[in-house]
Design brief:
Elements lengths: L1 E2 L6 E2 L29 H28 L5 H28 L31 H19 L9 H24 L4 H5 L7 H19 L17 H19 L8 H29 L4 H15 L8 H18 L2 H5 L7 H19 L2 H4 L17 H30 L9 H6 L1 H6 L6 H10 L28 H7 L2
Antiparallel strand pairs: 1-2
């Protein structure tokens, strides 16, 4: 490549792309050859940015969950989501990536040839020949982490931290890794069958939503469930909005990054992501206004997440106009699905199953209907027969089989894992009534999302307690003799405080 002009001529410092010709598992010897010549620097740069964006979603989940809960357990939910990164990142390095994306995987799970990232370096990844194994490994590690973070929100306000940490490692190994393998590894049975899932309708959302439902079932209802004690508003709506912003921004890396390269398919995924989120938020907000005659900020944020969840499996397969339908259907379906927990008698405190389980299912089915061959081929290599809209009705059957199997495996497996963990001495899932009364922050962490004076004011008696009357739980008897009932006025009290 050359340049010319008033300043003369010369050669640009440009390294031409070469076809991969390595034969070793690592992709070559970096001491004797330049391993970068097999990949476009733009693709690698975009995937590194996408990895960071997906990581940003995890504290977003923490803020979102924390804002929905009561003040006395707000920090515990942020702690759980960040701990999910720590535990899952190690699990992914240790054997998770190998069990999911090894080049010699079977139909249901991989092998241990890449345990400890052994031989994971510069060979083309199983996801795409455009990016190397190591880059794909760190990117998909963020997917595993956020899936766990989504699921453990079910622990809200009554679950112990230590058993949940054990659950994170075991669940990722036994549940997430196989589902991700059979969906995204070319050797997986869903992939070979013809199921399509661009960024995680089943591995991320259906699996986390059904795991959260299982965790809620095994934990049992919160203290005061069905009474005025749990008739409270989210304690911090601003925190919910901040969490939603983190998620919305991060989702561009989640969906557009799943194109595994800087190409037009990534652009289409970004367009679909933003459009479905916007329409989903407006739809949910309108539905809430119909009932309450209030323009709910929490409702808008919930609808945004529902739209993002639904478009996840189809963002790189469907045309932009269909993203509007994804948003409307997801916003409506997930809104009404929040009533399912009452029919089931399960205390899903944060409606994780309603938004992620149902939203993922809706997204999978709509993807099977609206998938278009010309959208999939925007990356220049993916060939797809299309969906129901183009006459390929069998795609809907593939999507249904994928969705139902993912739900059944995750829900059933999660129940078994939780049942066995609960049998181990010292790993009982449920916190004591005393701990539930004072809150998970004080009982399990010993730190608080807010200053302790405010915590004591709300939890002890809601009165004007003096600073020198505030005491840590270690210095007071519990359950508290004059515990404050959390009525629907808690949100108003919070805004009037201080």
């Amino acid at each position: 490549m050359s340049r010319s002009g008033p300043g003369g001529t010369g050669d640009l410092d440009y390294v031409p792309l070469e076809p991969y010709n390595g034969t070793t598992r690592t992709g070559g010897d970096s001491l004797v050859q330049n391993l970068n010549v097999f990949y476009q620097t733009g693709d690698i740069a975009w995937m590194l940015v996408s990895t960071a964006l997906v990581f940003l979603m995890i504290p977003g989940v923490g803020f979102f969950y924390s804002g929905l809960a009561r003040r006395k357990s707000a920090l515990s939910l942020i702690w759980l989501t960040m701990m999910a990164v720590g535990v899952t990142s190690f699990q992914w390095f240790f054997w998770g990536y190998s069990l999911t994306f090894s080049h010699t995987a079977g139909r249901f799970i991989g092998d241990l040839k890449n345990v400890g990232f052994r031989d994971v370096l510069a060979a083309p990844s199983t996801g795409s020949a455009r990016i190397p194994d190591l880059l794909y490994a760190v990117y998909q590690g963020m997917f595993a982490s956020i899936t766990v973070a989504l699921a453990v929100g079910a622990v809200a306000e009554r679950g112990r931290m230590l058993p949940c940490v054990f659950f994170m490692f075991i669940w990722t190994t036994i549940i997430y890794d196989p589902i991700a393998c059979w969906t995204w590894n070319p050797a997986g049975w869903v992939s070979r069958m013809g199921g399509i899932d661009f960024a995680g309708g089943t591995p991320v959302h259906i699996s986390s939503g059904s795991a959260a439902l299982a965790y809620s079932l095994m934990l049992g209802k919160r203290r005061g469930h069905g009474t005025h004690e749990l008739n409270f508003r989210p304690h911090n709506v601003t925190q919910i909005i901040i969490g939603t912003v983190f998620l919305w921004v991060g989702w561009f890396g989640f969906n557009a990054g799943s194109a595994l390269g800087a190409n037009m398919r990534a652009v289409m995924a970004a367009v679909n992501t933003n459009l479905a989120a916007s329409v989903g938020g407006v739809t949910w907000c309108i539905l809430d206004y119909r009932l309450e005659k209030k323009w709910s900020a929490v409702g808008f944020c919930s609808g945004v997440v529902a739209g993002l969840v639904a478009i996840t499996p189809g963002s790189g397969f469907v045309p932009a106009w269909s993203a509007v339908i994804f948003g409307i259907v997801a916003g409506s379906s997930c809104n009404y699905a929040t009533k399912v927990k009452f029919y089931l008698g399960i205390d899903d405190a944060l409606d994780i199953f309603a938004v992620h389980g149902i939203g993922g299912f809706v997204g999978n089915i709509l993807t099977g209907f609206f998938a278009a061959d010309y959208i999939a081929h925007l990356d220049g290599s993916t060939n797809l027969p299309g969906g129901g809209l183009t006459g390929h009705w069998m795609q809907l059957c593939y999507q249904l089989a994928d969705s139902v199997s993912g739900f059944a495996y995750s829900f059933g497996g999660s129940c078994i894992i939780l049942f066995l963990i609960n049998l181990i001495p010292g790993l009982g899932l449920r916190a004591s009534e005393e701990a539930e009364v004072i809150g998970m922050d004080d009982a399990e962490i010993g730190e608080f999302a807010y200053d302790f004076v405010e915590f004591t004011r709300d939890v002890v008696n809601g009165g004007d307690m003096l600073d020198d009357e505030s005491k840590y739980s270690a210095d007071r008897d519990s359950p508290l003799p004059n515990e404050k009932a959390f009525s629907s006025t808690v949100g108003d009290d919070h805004h009037r405080s201080r």
